[in-house]
Amino acid sequence: MSDFDWTVPVLVAGAGACGSVAALAAADAGVGVLVVERDDRPGGSTGMSQGLVCAAGTRSQAAHGVADDAATFFDDIMAKARGKTDPVIARTLAINSAPALEWLIDRHALPWELETRFRASYGNTRPRLHGWPGHSGLDMVQLLHARMADAGVDVLFDTRLVEIVADADGRVRGVALERPDGAIERVGCETLILACGGYGANRAMTDRYAPETRALRYNGHEGSEGDAITLGEKLGAALGDMGSYQGYAMLTDPQGISVPPPVLLEGGLIVNAHGARFTDETADIAGMVHPLTEQPDGIGWVIYDAAIEQRCAAIPELATLIELHAAKSADTPEALAALIGADPSMLTDAIKRAQGAGAGSAPDPLGRDWTGTQPPSAPFRALRVIGALYHTQGGLQVDAEARVLRPDGSRLPNLFAGGGSARSVSGPSSWGYLPAMGLTTAVTLGWISGRAAAALAAGRTEQSVES
């Protein structure tokens, strides 16, 4: 270790949700931990998210009368991914999501509770999205950083991981870090957790692994260039589901703010530039991006009403759009069509057919189930939307302890991964993405990897992680 400037038991690369949770878990285990973050402040992909996490079997679910468990969650993950994902990772997330969440609530006072506005939908057969009502992912990551400060965890900002130093057996001995002035520091470590972003900002990598995203605007963090994935692969790590990503069909244009899913779940519609519906709005929150890009000019309009707006007004993204007066408003479909440049007869027909389906007088033309919701009625609102790539879901192959694996299934000796650096459970494309699974993977694998890395660094065996 004499080649390094100093040495730490656990080094975490990345200070978003995964890295922050991993650092807190390691610190709770009584092991020294250092976090390095390429940005100059907390944020990253977590800061751009809604701050929502799936967890099954939580106290908050029980308090709201929701019966859920790990087995149901696992079945939902596998069904959404059409069986084309790693069952070990899926089961690990399903079993450990609630314990990870409850630990953060109990030990670190994170104010998460069941988000009741997100009903069971888009592959989740139970309401299981948890968040901090009225707050965003940026609030979440800032709170996590406050908790790290409380725990005495050091975070080096504006510090980029540029090299992993390992021996011939693949055991990580340390890393090379680029500091703000360009100087390179070499830090030794007993264990390394890669908790960086994915590769959505790296056009060469998205063209290689996810070419179907070429038509999509990138709306993720600019630092998600796949550095950790590339460095892990150089050590001999296996990659998994590299074509997986979260697409989204409701990025407002030109505002660049996401329309939150409850706007659709509460009865909203999406139509193309001519005013025609083209998909069941409740079928696939991520995969819907592709039908949208196939529409004229790749443009859509989210149609909703004043009642839907009122029910969703407290969601931060919609609250911002309301404050910006981003929506077009009209009292009739014909007047709304004039405002958005759609064909009046097409838009009127789309709305009337949806209203008929909602009233039960006719089946929905696109197969949407209107049970418990109503289509929009006057006064109407419309937001212009485009399709976007939010983040990738493929990465380093890990096991039930978040240990990075080689192609033959053997473990690299002391390397862990989570968040955007690790393979998630969305299958090979976008259609397998369950809402909030990005942060679910980050938080759960962060908790698991932090505990396991701390145990390894201290010469203990982690026994409490289930798989």
Report on the structure:
This protein is α/β, with parallel strands linked by helices. It contains 15 helices and 19 strands. Strands 1, 2, 6, 7, 8, 9, 18 and 19 form an eight-stranded mixed β-sheet that branches. Strands 10, 12, 13, 14, 15 and 16 form a six-stranded mixed β-sheet that branches. It has a three-stranded antiparallel β-sheet with strand order 3-5-4. 56% of the residues are buried.
Task: Kindly summarize this structure in a few lines.
The protein is α/β, with parallel strands linked by helices.
Low-confidence stretches: none
Coarse structural class = alpha/beta
Question: Radius of gyration in whole Å, from Cα?
Answer: 23 Å
Major sheet description: 8 strands, mixed
Tell how many strands the DSSP assignment holds.
19
Q: Any key phrases for this structure?
A:
21% strand, 8-stranded mixed sheet, 6-stranded mixed sheet, 33% helix, alpha/beta
Topology of this structure?
Layout: E1 6-13, H1 17-28, E2 33-36, H2 44-47, E3 53-54, H3 59-63, H4 70-80, H5 87-108, E4 113-114, E5 129-131, H6 137-150, E6 154-156, E7 160-166, E8 172-178, E9 184-194, H7 203-209, E10 217-218, H8 227-234, E11 239-240, E12 245-252, H9 262-265, E13 269-272, H10 289-293, E14 300-305, H11 306-312, H12 316-323, E15 328-330, H13 333-340, H14 344-359, E16 380-392, E17 395-396, E18 403-405, E19 411-417, H15 437-457
Parallel strand pairs: 1-2, 1-9, 2-6, 9-19, 10-16
Antiparallel strand pairs: 3-5, 4-5, 7-8, 8-9, 11-17, 12-16, 13-14, 14-16, 15-16, 18-19
